[in-house]
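Purpose: get a first structural picture of the assembly so the mutagenesis plan has something to point at.
Setup: two entries, given in the order below. No constraints added.
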Amino acid sequence: MPVKIPATTGAILLLLISSFLYAQQPKADDCLPAVFSTPGQCSQRILGDLQIIYKIDSSGNTVTCVLLLNTQLAGLCRLTPTSSTYIFDLVLGNGSAKGSLTMFPSLKDTPGMLNGDISYSVSANNRSFVFKGVLAAWYANGISPPRPQQTINR
Amino acid sequence: MAFPYSQTTPLVNSISAKTTVTLQGGMQVATIEYSSAAGLLGKMVLSPIQPTAGPETYKRGQQVLVINQATFTAAQGFVDGNVFVDGSGTDQHGKNDTPFSADIADWTSNGTAGAKAKKATAKEH
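Result (structure tokens, whole complex):
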């Protein structure tokens, strides 16, 4: 019996310490929606006739993009920290897209971002619209991204 | 979540608009089907990334439906989502061209009927 007491105390202590450490972890996932992309995987954004497919390098510093207009290849780019902006003016059939893509690499404590300033057509609606903002964001280099419960297909 | 939300509203001259709002990747997407006694006249798809459509003209026999503009607002927070259309339609003989400019659907962020849609159904009964 005397041998069991230290073992039980040890187990309780371990449980207390681990729960304390868990409580200390930043819980960004408590309020942030699932918007972060995973480096190394392909994701996409669809803006009317324009479909932007992008793959973030596992380092979080390079992004390869394929731009499709009405499902057909119209633009290609590889964004790196030294060549971080892609300016395009694409037209295919009734579809058109004009603007730029800019990549901000993932730093130690900030997520990487792919920003867009795009004018895109929706030929089915006889209209054209504008997008200005963040197309994608990601964490890399071992920094844990927020992992909420719900998943949004992008 | 109660999506998909569906609402059918008569426009003019026996033309009606059926709006179906679905959630696609967390985004509200409204599909509007315009139909008359002769069948489907046309379809429009609206969402936050393509919030307006038109001008568009649909014809079936002598009947003509003109949509000058359809506008979409997504439901968010306390504000109901809605689809507003502006245009005109004739009867099946191509006569009595009648204009309309009205909300054809409204829904809450939960995907249930909005305040205006509820009022409309309450009046019917």
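Chain B has one helix and nine strands.
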